[in-house]
Amino acid sequence: MTAYTAAIDNVSRRGFLRGVLATGGLVIAAEFVPLRTAFAYATGAAKFSGGVVSDPHVFVAIDPTGIVTIVAHRAEIGTCSRTSLPMCVADELEADW
């Protein structure tokens, strides 16, 4: 196994400052470019009969008697979502688990 040594030659203050400013400018420019929308993909929820549902009342219902009902309609695949989701909602609503 050979030893690897790295040497930095001819590093001037001007070159170092240019590199720091260029890197800082790139970081600042990356904050203003909307990359999240560029890499977003359509999930297909708009093609469902009900369209995109972003109303939490569809999944959480509070009865007039105080009973909280939580609907988790997706299959659980070892993620414990049917246990952790009701626990989180009960904690936020200060309901008895």
What does this structure look like?
The chain has helices at 13-32, 35-38, 81-93, and strands spanning 60-62, 68-70. A two-stranded antiparallel sheet has the order 1-2. The chain has 3 helices and 2 strands; from the N terminus they run ααββα. It is mainly alpha-helical. The longest helix has 20 residues, at 13-32. The chain has a domain at 45-93.
Main sheet: strands, sense, barrel = 2 strands, antiparallel
Beta-strand content bin: 5-15%
What's the tally of helices?
3
The value of Rg in angstroms is 26 Å
Mean pLDDT across every amino acid position: 76
Uncertain residue ranges? none
Largest sheet: spatial strand order: 1-2
What is the helix fraction of residues, given as a range?
25-40%
| Total beta strands | 2
Series of H and E elements: HHEEH
Structural class: mainly alpha
Distance between the termini: 60 Å
